[in-house]
């Protein structure tokens, strides 16, 4: 896939540079923010089921902690590399800042194809990774969560391992846990549902509403599935969906519930019958009003941005659009709701889960969902209004507005703390 050909860290630094310029900040500020405060790489030996030992490589990048403890997910993927983890941790700093959460940014990753491991191997890998990073994570230090190919079960292993090592029940050390272990149901739907709320707000601005609008989704993991469900519930028509093996297209609409069932039972959307089949990347180019990239980074680049027909792009994935690709989208007048805004629902509910753990499990799910929707809507309008009223919209897009707001808060916190 093309995302391995480009360096997401370079892209992330370009985005940071632009916001430093917009805000008129010095090179010193760029210098501080262009690299993580702490980066740890671990070698993880795992006893495999056949008796052999395999060594995996993992990372935790702690980008900035001016606003609070580091927060961000851990990704398991065969293409994970150090620069990707750094870029993702930087994006978490901006995401948490923009969402006004009391967190800095962090991200972890293990270079592994989890589908090739048995449940036992996966558990041993997860526990050993967490043991190796246990000195730098903590309830008030760094709070991991799920990301690509990790889930509530992974978090349960992390939490249990950490609790065992420390000798107390550390529910708040990770979020996105199973419901029985301090997790929230809303956390499961939060990233996708939050993206749907942001996309619907944008649709109100552009089309007067989301009802009857067509949607195309690239990537059908947790974020893609719940974005599809929520958008359908809001009255949109899902016309195309893909996963890493390929995609399905039906201009009359796809039965989302059925597609989710098929994906969960067979492993791929390709087994859905009532649709034309095409490739993983094709949803990017179909005739749909709203495009939701929900897979990996670097999907929309200068090479293919011209082929995109959607009027709104809601980034459920982290970093799906490269700066040179976005330049083309901006010229075409396509509104991109940037990842740090569009997919913040996950970490917004992670924060509620973390607070709830500290209160001994106090909140009701209905309150949590309402809070998520309220915060996503509020944040969308805060960025939109700043973009429309304070920036030259010919020159700057919505991402530039989101970045300026996010970087400014981190800068102000560093100044208050006396770091600069
Ligand atoms: N991995 C998610 C993200 O990229 C969630 C992070 C979290 O909940 O801490 O935003």
How is this structure best described in words?
The chain is α/β, with parallel strands linked by helices and 420 residues long. Among the domains are: 36-170, Rossmann fold; 189-342, 3-Layer(aba) Sandwich (Rossmann fold). Helix content is 45%, strand content 17%. It has 13 helices and 12 strands. The strands form 2 sheets. Strands 9-8-7-6-10-11-12 form a 7-stranded mixed β-sheet, sandwiched between helices. Strands 1-2-4-3-5 form a 5-stranded mixed β-sheet. Helix 6 (185-207) packs parallel to helix 12. The longest helix is centred in the last third of the chain and has 26 residues, at 365-390. The protein is globular and about 55 Å long. The relative contact order is 0.13. The structure holds glutamic acid. Glutamic acid binds at residues 71-73, 95, 145, 147, 175-176, 318, 343, 346-347, 350.
Task: Provide a brief overview of the structure.
45% of the residues lie in helices and 17% in strands. By secondary structure, the chain is an alpha/beta fold.
